[in-house]
Specification:
alpha/beta; 8-stranded mixed β-barrel; 12 helices; 22% strand; binds ligand C2E; binds calcium ion
Length: 361
């Protein structure tokens, strides 16, 4: 059509160029029309088929811009609509480039960390857990920390996500496991022989064929018995690949590593399936701890989760415990272990060692 051309770009990607328009809205309207067209069912060989399309729009206003750059910008715009299935059309904005730049920097830093060229930006912090039954410290959770010179501290939620998308997660996780091994060794050398460390494991790691063998090799290379490790797997990982993941969990448990189901209560609806899962512990999501109200016990369903988990023989850890009142509620309802700022924030390795030395003196 006049002023509108359609190009095939790669397998399932197309480029539409509209070289004359008065208002931005015309671009949105054209996009909506294209999407409406793709939504209509198509009959082929007796079946109905449905297509799906999403459109990233880049406005080129007079300036010279390379084809590569404008395609990258369109892609970048599309990557910004994730999580919003209704937003099938999105305009590129300059701020998006800032985000891309940040992601590239983080990616570069992760590469340097994995490659051993950067030994200062990355570390693990360790948050102690409190055993409510006898007041002792029940191991630590390892939490990854990244601090970059120009960006400051970067949340693990952000850099783990980047590591997963850039296929760096396996190497990064090996690095994390080694650091965790070093901490266990330091704990045991300081006389805290019963202490274990919990390491967070992402779903993508679990799905990898050589994950179990890899894990075994790393821990064995430190000469530490497997029982001093616990792996935390988030509940949402089970939504897809349930059978496969559960089979992996069985293999990890067979090695002697404990398994705990993290963020429990937020994703995996079928409680009846919990008993067939190869896990030792459920970690209730922080959300439930926050909802403990004190006056009215019934306002929180945490006590139901605790008694249900106990019925099927699982240990219960409550996360995000920040107040005395929350701790009292949990203790009175039989929760086994708590973790949260009330007892201690995640601490650098040295401070974690000091903390446990003081606590056991
Ligand atoms: P998570 O596994 O649920 O970890 C608990 C988060 O809650 C941590 O945030 C911790 O610092 C924070 N937290 C602990 N106690 C309290 C409290 O009393 N109140 C509040 N408001 N927060 C508390 P962080 O360290 O930012 O980690 C966020 C998430 O990033 C973790 O959630 C975990 O999913 C992921 N993550 C962290 N380290 C790793 C890692 O080494 N590998 C992988 N795959 N994921 C990691
Ligand atoms: Ca965790
Ligand atoms: Ca959690």
């Amino acid at each position: 059509r006049a002023h509108e051309s359609l190009f095939s770009y790669s397998d399932d990607r197309f480029v539409v160029i509209k070289d004359h328009y008065e208002q931005k809205e015309e671009l949105a309207t054209l996009s909506e029309r294209i999407i409406a067209t793709t939504k209509a069912p198509m009959s082929f060989a007796g079946d109905h088929h449905y297509l799906y399309a999403e459109i990233g729009i880049v406005e080129v206003k007079g300036e010279r811009i390379s084809v590569d750059t404008s395609l990258q910008q369109a892609n970048l715009a599309l990557s910004h609509r994730k999580g919003d299935p209704d937003a099938a059309v999105i305009f590129f904005k300059d701020e998006m480039e800032g985000i891309l730049l940040r992601q590239r920097k983080i990616k570069r830093a992760l590469r340097a960390i994995i490659g051993g060229k950067d030994t200062t930006s990355f570390s693990l912090h360790f948050q102690p857990k409190l055993n409510l039954l006898d007041g002792s410290i029940y191991g630590f959770e390892a939490l990854a920390r990244l601090r970059m010179e120009d960006l400051g501290p970067v949340s693990p939620l952000e850099f783990i996500d980047i590591a997963e998308r850039e296929l760096l997660i396996h190497d990064l996780s090996r690095h994390i496991l080694r650091l965790a091994c070093e901490f266990v060794r330091a704990l045991h050398q300081a006389g805290h022989e019963s202490q274990s460390v919990a390491v967070n494991i992402s779903g993508i790691q679990l799905l990898r064929d050589d994950f179990v063998e890899d894990t075994k090799q790393i821990i064995e290379s430190y000469g530490i018995p497997m029982r001093y490790f616990e792996f935390e797997i988030t509940e949402s990982v089970l939504l897809e690949n349930y059978e496969l993941i559960n089979e992996k969990l069985a293999r990890i448990k067979n090695l002697g590593i404990q398994i705990s189901l993290d963020d429990f209560g937020t994703g995996f609806s079928s409680l009846s399936r919990l008993s067939e899962l190869h896990i030792d512990t459920v970690k209730t999501d922080r959300y439930f701890t926050k909802n403990i109200s004190g006056e009215d016990d019934d306002a929180s369903i945490l006590h139901d989760i605790i008694s249900m988990a106990h019925k099927i023989g699982k240990t219960v850890v409550a996360e995000g415990v920040e107040t005395d009142m929350q701790m009292r509620y949990l203790a009175s309802h039989g929760c086994d272990i708590i973790q949260g700022y009330l007892f201690s924030k995640p601490l650098p390795q040295r401070d974690a060692l000091d903390f446990i030395t003081k606590a056991t003196r």
